[in-house]
């Protein structure tokens, strides 16, 4: 069994004296693990950093074996991340959530493309947090818990003042449609509808919204595991930037 593809490195851990086990996200085979011989060496360990874009060749005697990877670097994102604490926290949030959510060896071409695009924006801090928020929406969609922000769940498409989201159904609700139930709904910031300049305060509000569905809808389907700490560390660091005088 063998295949060749490119992928994004999600994690690497030492295996034995000189090898490493890596997990990558690929377009056609989803999240996939394998052993890299010499992966812990001085030559390869600097390459095997989270976020790296790799050319991959995987081989195994049987398809269900862990197999071995031969890797060639295509581009590194470590330099960008290491030079910016927010970028590093964001990179760690992305890779940790993918490891948390994705089943092994299931294709996720759309999410792969969204992830690659997002990571290529790491050096643009003015737009990256909003891009990351939209990526979390795509992740929820991929996992079967997408939000429906197209029309008001109560009043239909005629309502044009979408302001809330139902915490149970994930459907948008207009201000008029919410009525006396507004305090039981989750605020929907305009930036998630593609409206306005997307100030940091709105993006933080968006993280509260996606976080609710990650914690209360997705996580229970994955055995009630807690969300990766890396996500909250990124949000906390972003909040510090937001509140900086």
Automatic annotation (TrEMBL):
Family: Belongs to the RecO family.
Cellular component GO terms held in the UniProt record: bacterial nucleoid
Gene Ontology terms describing biological process: DNA recombination; double-strand break repair
Organism: Roseovarius gaetbuli
Organism taxonomic ancestry: Bacteria, Pseudomonadati, Pseudomonadota, Alphaproteobacteria, Rhodobacterales
Designated name of the protein: DNA repair protein RecO
Domain DNA replication/recombination mediator RecO N-terminal: 1-74
Keyword terms of this UniProt record: DNA damage, DNA recombination, DNA repair
The UniProt record lists the keyword Heme: no
Keyword Phosphoprotein assigned: no
Role: Involved in DNA repair and RecF pathway recombination.
InterPro entries listed in its UniProt record: ARFGAP/RecO (IPR037278), DNA_rep/recomb_RecO_N (IPR022572), NA-bd_OB-fold (IPR012340), RecO (IPR003717), RecO_C (IPR042242)
């Amino acid at each position: 069994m063998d295949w060749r593809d490119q992928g994004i490195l999600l994690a690497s851990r030492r295996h034995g004296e000189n090898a490493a086990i890596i997990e990558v996200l690929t377009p056609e085979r989803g999240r996939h693990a394998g052993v890299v011989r010499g992966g812990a060496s001085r030559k390869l360990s600097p390459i095997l950093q989270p976020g790296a874009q790799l050319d991959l060749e995987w081989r195994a005697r049987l398809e269900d074996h862990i197999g071995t990877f031969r890797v060639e670097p295509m581009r590194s994102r470590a330099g960008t991340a290491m030079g910016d604490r927010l970028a590093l926290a964001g990179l760690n949030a992305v890779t940790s959530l993918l490891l948390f959510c994705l089943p092994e060896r299931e294709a996720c071409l759309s999410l792969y493309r969204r992830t690659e695009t997002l990571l290529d924006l790491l050096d643009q801090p003015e737009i990256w947090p909003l891009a990351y928020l939209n990526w979390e929406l795509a992740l929820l969609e991929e996992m079967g818990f997408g939000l429906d922000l197209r029309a008001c769940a109560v009043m239909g498409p005629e309502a044009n003042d979408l302001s809330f989201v139902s915490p149970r159904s994930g459907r948008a609700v207009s201000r008029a449609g919410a009525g006396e139930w507004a305090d039981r709904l989750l605020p929907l910031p305009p930036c998630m509808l593609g409206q306005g300049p997307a100030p940091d305060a709105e993006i933080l509000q968006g993280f509260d919204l996606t976080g609710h569905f990650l914690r209360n809808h997705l996580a229970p389907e994955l055995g009630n595991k807690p969300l990766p700490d890396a996500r909250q560390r990124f949000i906390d660091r972003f909040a510090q930037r937001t509140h900086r005088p």
